[in-house]
Predict the structure.
Amino acid sequence: MLIRSKSLFLPLLLGFVGAVQAAEECATVVQCNQIGTEAYQDGRFEQAIEAFERQLRRVDDGDTAQLELALNNLILANLRAGDAGMARAWLGVALDNHLNGSSTRLHLRKVSEALDYPALSTYPVGRYLRYSGQAVWSELLISEDGNGGYLASFAPVRVGARVEQYGPAAIGELDGKLVGDGVQMRLEDAGLGRDCAVQLLREGIELRVQEVYGDGCQDYGGMGISVDGRYIKVDAQVRP
């Protein structure tokens, strides 16, 4: 059985009282940026990342300058915290939003230099993330099954407009065995119907998941839950 990474579910399911208290301290983009910057300068990178995530959630739609600032804060704070994989994930969000300011271009180079691409891309085993919005990520863990194969454990999340106050709007859990060559794989023994196929294509640090939508195929989670989409590998190990 896979052990779910604490970094995903503890903040989502157990930490919302603390999140609400913290939110009261940074009700605006400017306040969150200031609090996060002070924590960053003090070397309190975990607190800085939390503040910058709240900063991101407060960016108004269409405000690309503030969006780029929040994302670059997250990239840099994760780099300084020693988590180049997570920095790369945030960089991907910036690139997906077509942000190309000087800071983003600088951090692209820094992330590329810090990330161990061969270690992440050689084998399927590791932790993958898919951005769900509102500074929240869905997660996929792939581990060895002890017999030369692989196991997959999905934890998809659908965020709502007030994720800090109430948590995710819906969550899911889907576990099974991966069959294939480590590049093209399909999910089996996951309790899905015979027509509910889930297929994976792994290319470097990116992984694409395609699933069939139909009656009973998404019963592994709440309304609107899906494992479909693009994931990025952030860690070559499955950590407790």
Notes: Residues 64-80 form the longest helix (17 residues). The longest strand covers residues 136-144. Confidence is low (pLDDT under 50) at residues 1-21.
